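Quick illustration, no need to memorize.
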Amino acid sequence: MKYQKKLTAVLLITIFLLSVVITGFTSISKASTKESLGVSDATNFDDPITVISGMVQAINEQDPYEYMTYFTNSNRTAMTQFLSSNKSESFFKEKQAKLIQIKELPKDIDIEAAGISSGENLNLDDTRIYYAEINFKVDKEDKWLYNGTNYRVIVVTKEDGNWKIVRLSVPSIEYLKDTGNGFNSKDENIAVKIESTLERKGQVMNMKGAVIDNIAATEEQLKNEK
């Protein structure tokens, strides 16, 4: 199947994205206070898109405590544990973020696009999946995060009556475009080329077309696989 490999990779990428966003902080005392509150006074948790917008704004404010309030309890627990063991590094790799476009994916597409497995404990009736176009500014670009427009699938679910983010993942952009669920923007077309180049050549490119990394297997590695 054309997209099987890409869709299978979504769950693995999701785990990586949590470590991209959360890379340590100097103290967890304030985070623990926010954790006990669980919600932000200024946010309408009745609206999933407002929750996603709040998460993006927390990146702009470089506020890890506010950021955590938009995620589910299990995510906040994992974030707090991570913070406690990584005290000397910056929390965010993203310096700025802007939500450009967002759309809810239809039910016949969203589960595959998000890589949701049957073993996940999600009530799909209380879960919504969004495709988002987000512009990031970063100091260091890598395989899944670069300056300019990035694409994310965002899973939100009801928890204690409030919409909370389960995870963000990097989808197969080509799959979403080919199923008629893309944004059809110029930047999305560039992102498809970046995705294709990575898959075919193992070259990691940014939005400007520069190669920032090469993860292609060497001749020696290919020989060892035989």
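The longest helix spans residues 4-21.
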